[in-house]
Protein 1
Amino acid sequence: LPVQSAITQPRPGAAVPPGELTVKGYAWSGGGREVVRVDVSLDGGRSWRPARLKKENREPAVPGRAWAWVLWELEAPVR
């Protein structure tokens, strides 16, 4: 299964003030494969930024397998 991702913050259509914005979400894959990178576009795909994966305290349930999902966040400037 290819990696899929969803944005959970900010909500769709939310008005955000200028300055630093925290974008949060989750990504998942399949087959016991680890999500190793999430890239986020804030301009309709013209440019991409790598998000920070939040993997602290995550041990795989089965040796040799990885968790199928991971939380991520990105700090980005907003005009």
Note: Strands lie at 4-9, 19-28, 39-40, 49-50, 52-54, 69-78.
Protein 2
Amino acid sequence: MQENVLQRVLQLPVVSSTCESLQRTYTSTKEAHPLMASVCEVYERGVQGAGALAMWGMEPVVRKLEPQFAMANNLACRGLDHLEEKIPALQYPVDK
């Protein structure tokens, strides 16, 4: 199975802990401010709909460019290997 650079980046402790912190802040803000929660929910539904429409429209292009995407992904994974080797802090959560 081929590695996916985006999944690898999201699994880095520094990135995943940052995303978790942002998610907690977003959720607590929605819970503390009902008006903000309703605005956020409308925005979330809009983003989901736009994302689904974009995926549907891009599918033929993505299929056609799949070899180029695979090559770019491999190159990005090698670059990420190098970064992980040179910057050990990527392996620690943000609070450390």
Note: Helices lie at 5-11, 13-32, 34-64, 66-86.
Protein 3
Amino acid sequence: PPALWFLENPSNVTSSLGKTVRLRCRVRGAGEPPEMGWWRDGHPLELADSDQAQVPLSEDVWLATSQLSIPAVQLSDAGRYRCWARAGGEQL
């Protein structure tokens, strides 16, 4: 199997102005735990408000979750958000 694979990745999300939006992705992999991050419209979100957790499932298999929060969403927050994960030379 591949070293990394997505178990959950955000799809279409609809919200009202001023509400908090949370996007979550989950990755499972073998080997080393991943580095994870987010892009918006093809550009990295360097200072994104995200929480990340890694849980070992066995000695060399893990589950990693990244959740991006957008508080008080505005029209300027609209766009295409994508989660990425990188480990062992492989990136999704």
Note: The longest strand covers residues 21-30.
